[in-house]
Amino acid sequence: MASLPSRTLLSWLWGVPQQVHQDDDASSSPQRFSVTPRIKELVHMKPWAIETQHVSKQFPNGAYALRDIEWGVQEGETMALIGESGSGKTTLLRLLNRLAEPTDGIVFIQGKPACSQDPIQLRRRLGYVPQDGGLFPHWTINQNVCLVPQLLGWTPIRQLEQVTKLLPLLNLDPAQIAERYPTELSGGQRQRVAVARALAADPPIVLLDEPFGALDPLTRHDLQDQFLSLKTRLQKTMVLITHDMSEAFRLGDRITILKEGHIHQIGTPQELLHSPATPYVDSLIQHYHAHPG
Questions:
Q1: CA separation for the pair 162, 142 (Å, rounded)
Q2: Cα–Cα distance for residue pair 10/43, rounded to 1 Å
Q3: Residues 280, 238: contact at Cβ < 8 Å?
Q4: Would you say 52 and 107 are in contact if contact means Cβ atoms under 8 Å apart?
Q5: Residue 202, pLDDT above cutoff 60
Q6: Contact 241/93 with Cβ under 8 angstroms?
Q7: S-S: 73 plus which of 4, 6, 79, 285, CB 3.0-4.6 Å?
Q8: pTM
Q9: Cβ neighbours for 66, distance < 8 A, ≥ 6 positions apart
């Protein structure tokens, strides 16, 4: 039996209140490292689409999920976030769309403080793919993909044109699946639909929370291929959470490595492979070399 949509997705679109709680991305033992990248040390090739300045997130019990994060994502860049459970990845993603608010510091989205932007309007301007896809089980694929365009007041004809354009980009045939329901699709097809929905309103920024993590290896590799094709074609700014270093290397223009709420390194795949900044990063690279698949 299909489950109901998560409260996270409802909060994203309509602002349903959501209790702030300590999840598995919160750490009770934050630790300071000597090598912490700063935004001023990064090369500004393009304007920042996303920027955080001295951002921390502390929970009521005193535990920190993030501490003093200075970080940026350039326009058109795909940034992969990687780290073990409790590293702060999901918390950082939630700060970008105001599903959570920082305890200290400022998050900027397209040059404007996120806190000065209406959270509902902000979320509707950001594409979002949650871990489980978040499709509405009793809506057709067409209705799911058109959710945000409908909320934005697009005409039915324009919505239909967008579905007809997007689904083929993800190897989906609109004539075959547009009037079907999520439970009638395979796991890989559902994730493709979730990505199509995130792109439907043509957002400048797309946030993806482990979008391929629950899929079998062959389907996952196929979806990664589709992601790379879309990335080249659409030139969106994207933030992708993953636990898989090989996936981060394959999909990310740059990679941010988090541990216990701190950034250990930001760099291209080649920079991480050849110049790991901390023992933790080095251990991840050694594991990647031992298990590259």
A1: 10
A2: 37
A3: no
A4: yes
A5: yes
A6: yes
A7: 79
A8: 0.83
A9: 55, 56, 57, 88, 91, 92, 95, 102, 261
Domain boundary among 203, 220, 252: 203
pLDDT of residue 250: 95
Q: What is the total count of domains within the chain?
A: 2
- Distance between CA atoms of residues 263 and 254, nearest Å: 13
> Do 62 and 53 form a contact (C-beta atoms < 8 A)?
no
What the block records as the tokens of 43 is: 């090369």
Q: How many helices (H) and strands (E) does the chain have?
A: 12, 10
Q: What mean pLDDT is reported for the chain?
A: 86
Is 259 found in the same domain as 198?
Answer: no
Under DSSP, the state recorded for 74 is E
Query: For 25-63, what is each residue's pLDDT tens digit?
Result: 444 333 333 334 444 444 445 789 999 999 999 999 999
Rg (CA), the chain: 19
Q: Residues in the chain, how many?
A: 293
Domain containing 192: what range? 135-203
| Amino acid identity, position 139 | W
CATH number where 258 lies:
3.40.50.300
- Does residue 247 fall inside a structural domain? yes
Instruction: Taking residues 251-275, report their average pLDDT.
Output: 97
Task: Give residue 293's pLDDT.
Answer: 61
CA quadruple 57, 63, 68, 71: dihedral sign: negative
Q: Quick one: which of 93, 70, 112 has its CA closest to 263?
A: 70
Q: Residue 11 corresponds to which amino acid?
A: S
Instruction: Look at the block and give the residue holding tokens 């699709």.
Output: 185
